[in-house]
Design goal:
Length: 438
Amino acid sequence: MRSKMSWTSTIPRSQAWLTVAVAAMLLSTQHSVSASATGGLASDHRTKSVKVKTRRLGGRHGAHCGQGWQDTYSHLHAAILESEASRQRLAVVNLHRNGLGDRLTAAVTVFYYALLSGRAFQINWRGASTEATLAAVMEKANVDWEAARGDVAGGGGTQYVDWWLIDGHHPPDAMDFKVFGGANLSDMWPDARTVVFDINTGAVDKLFYNPYHRQQLFTWGLRPETAVGCALNYLFRPRRETLEVVRESYEALRNPDALKIGIQVRMGDAWLQHKPNGVCDRKIDYDDLGRWFRCASKVEQEYKVEGMPVHWYVVSDCPALRYKAVEKYGLKVLLPSRELVTEHVTFSTGNSTKDVLAMRTAFAEQWLLGMTDFQVITEESSFGRLAALRSLRFRSVYTMRSPAAMAERGRNVSWECTRSNFDNFEEVAINHPWVKVL
Ligand SMILES: *[C@@H]1O[C@H](CO)[C@@H](O)[C@H](O)[C@H]1NC(C)=O
Ligand SMILES: *[C@@H]1O[C@H](CO)[C@@H](O)[C@H](O)[C@H]1NC(C)=O
Ligand SMILES: *[C@@H]1O[C@H](CO)[C@@H](O)[C@H](O)[C@H]1NC(C)=O
């Protein structure tokens, strides 16, 4: 019990009474906590009974993520949601714009703000249609992150934080980085019941230099390199219906004995939104798209052991590429078991069933990309970089860039994905002309 108590004392609480509540929960040995709601509250605020499933080892990645903070925060989060609205302290991230990678990047950033300031983390998701909710696609693995309507309405007690930069460029002296890099997050807006963020960058890496939080994060067992993956694995798990969309690939990628190489070829938002679905006829040519596949071949050559099954998992907004890859490279390329709906998560098809399927496809593919051993990804996309970070692998990423960006690094079309040519953590997470992941 002693060690649990010391974990408790390292997560700040916005209100002293929660110390007692959380300590009491941690002292009891039960694996689920439920408290009855107190009546008489405005119905659009949430005060409810929340089941907390404690997973003692912090899930399958426990060894990389530390143990202890997960359970402590799950209990704190549940205790906040169960308390009276006026005593709650919430941190909400608005996820209304941008694609999946950028949205999850913002979610992870605000999650760390919530964790370090002792607030309940909430997601206010706006999808392509009202049915396309986040909860329709992902399970609330350890905390109930779905924001209630009343929790994001403006008015007294709500602090709105607009860190949305129009061109997505967050210079190192931008306010988000200043706060995350050097402020005591518990002292930011302490009286606001709800802090609502609109943000289009990640600022997690900065926290590991923040004098108020650095020690705490390291003590918990988190590292800059694992922070994104650990948060994603803690917050989300794909729903059964979501994995169903990619069932055969999922089964193949679960094989611990196979060599699994992920290939993410991203054409871009413009392609996804303006071209009719499914008629991308790009070729796997030598100078351009062939580079992703040659890279995968080289990685395979570097790491394959005789007799080992090899799977290539291809994710692309040009769905036909998978079939072209099979023609060229054979059946190690995993094919989808059904027609996937490849659309941008902000783009409404006018058919809500299809919108939900598109969202399930995007989440499922990103999750599966994060199950691979190596990731050959596209530079101009946070989708692949986030999946690579979720894999909690290191020396696993090879980024395909524009010829100009390759030349800046002294590379040309014959540059090879050898063991030593991987992209390091800074390349994957931080050095990026557009939205940073960390
Ligand atoms: C941060 O602020 C909180 C609330 O004011 C305080 O309890 C805590 O000690 C501060 N942390 C550090 C490291 O100064
Ligand atoms: C809506 O989309 C679903 C899934 O793609 C499809 O089965 C259904 O036929 C579509 N409905 C209409 C009215 O087009
Ligand atoms: C690519 O670069 C390598 C070494 O930097 C060089 O030897 C090779 O000739 C270049 N190839 C092309 C096609 O420019």
